[in-house]
């Protein structure tokens, strides 16, 4: 798999960029970070994918949040100990952290690592995502998060981070990386 060959190529690199995306806005930001800082890029996939239909996913996520259900991940990350820094990317769902990212943080012990959140949302911001990350990530050093407006599936806006918007977000990402102490590799 691509993920494995990437890890071979970049085995010296201690960054992991793991992200969840549905309509590819968060993926666009993940790619920008990857291009800038290198490392391994992994998209989270579920054993049982969410429904395509928007209303159906909204009610499923709502219920998962209420019951605290952690959907099993299909993605496995071998040898997580090798990474010092883990960028975690996610959309805002239901004004909180999406259940699959809760699954990831619950499944892997990231204590002692630097965790760097990044997010896209429909314009309502981070909600309680950072508080949930703090709870699930005891012993992590959590750096300042990146947050930007992506799509708004409710209103039929899917991938919004493209064309001029992509350039705008890229400039913001690079400025943020610099502010948290990363200078871009390229
Ligand atoms: C199930 C679901 C719930 C969402 N809830 C919110 C929300 O509470 N607040 C918000 O600003 N955007 C919300 N959105 C919009 C997404 O955060 C936004 O479109 C984001 O850019 C999607 O990222 P992606 O393209 O990487 O999937 C929601 C989207 C979905 C699919």
TrEMBL record:
- What are the protein's UniProt keywords? Flavoprotein, FMN, Signal
Q: Where are the transmembrane segments?
A: none
Instruction: Mention one GO molecular function.
Output: FMN binding
Flavodoxin-like domain residues are 15-181
* Pfam families, alphabetized: Flavodoxin_4
PANTHER family from the entry?
EXPORTED PROTEIN-RELATED, FLAVODOXIN-LIKE DOMAIN-CONTAINING PROTEIN
- Kindly provide the name given to this protein in its UniProt entry: Flavodoxin
Organism of origin is Vreelandella maris
């Amino acid at each position: 798999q691509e993920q494995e060959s990437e890890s071979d190529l970049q085995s010296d690199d201690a960054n992991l960029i793991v992200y969840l995306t549905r309509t590819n806005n968060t993926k666009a930001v993940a790619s920008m970070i990857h291009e800038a800082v290198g490392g391994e890029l992994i998209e989270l996939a579920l054993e049982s994918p969410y429904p395509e239909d928007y209303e159906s996913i909204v009610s499923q996520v709502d219920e998962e949040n209420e019951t605290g259900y952690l959907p099993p991940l299909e993605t496995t990350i071998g040898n997580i100990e090798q990474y010092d820094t883990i960028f975690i990317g996610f959309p805002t769902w239901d004004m909180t952290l999406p259940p699959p990212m809760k699954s990831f943080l619950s499944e892997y012990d990231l204590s002692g690592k630097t965790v760097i959140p990044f997010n896209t949302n429909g314009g309502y911001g981070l909600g309680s995502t950072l508080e949930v990350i703090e709870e699930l990530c005891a012993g992590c050093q959590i750096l300042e998060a990146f947050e930007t407006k992506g799509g708004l599936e409710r209103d039929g806006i899917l991938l919004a981070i493209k064309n001029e918007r992509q350039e705008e977000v890229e400039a913001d990402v690079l400025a943020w990386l610099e502010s948290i102490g990363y200078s871009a590799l390229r």
